[in-house]
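hiii, so i know i said id send this last week but things got crazy w the move. better late than never?? heres the sequnce for the chain we talked about at the cafe, plus the structure i predicted for it. fair warning i was half asleep when i ran it
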Amino acid sequence: MELWDIIDENRQLVGKTIERGTTCLQNEYRLVVHLCIFNSKNEMLIQQRQPFKKGWPNMWDISVGGSATIGETSKDAVHRETLEELGLDINFTNERAFLTINFDTGFDDFYLIKRDIDLKTLKLQYEEVQNVKWASKLEVQKMINNGQFIPYYNDFINSLFEMYEHRGAHKISN
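okay and structure toks below
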């Protein structure tokens, strides 16, 4: 049984938890984290979900994703999810989410990092991940359009590929 803290619109704990699979009430929210790992070839590490997963079985997704559990900060959650799903122990102490997207019942924190990782060294979590690979922006967009990838907006995927090396919403001129 996985428990999630309930937070308010300002991301403050309200002293309440819910069990995974339970819907948040109005004005109650939860925290979800995502990690996009990019390499020096401008490719994103993507993972294929297991066929027995409830949501989006067999579909490809960004590098890591999951809900923060009780007592976890965003950084705690992204660290745990990365360790669980890929077997990578990445230090997020000096990282912060690149962006946060609000959804009806919560907040999606997206972390973007650059690392050249040998896929053979990853330890995939059987319950979550069946496969991983590196993919270019064009490959990810084709997979979305073909129904093989979780249906993110193409413009959102473009933004992730554009932003991972630069903070902020505008380009830095040289």
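btw The longest strand covers residues 30-38. thought thatd interest u
miss u guys!!
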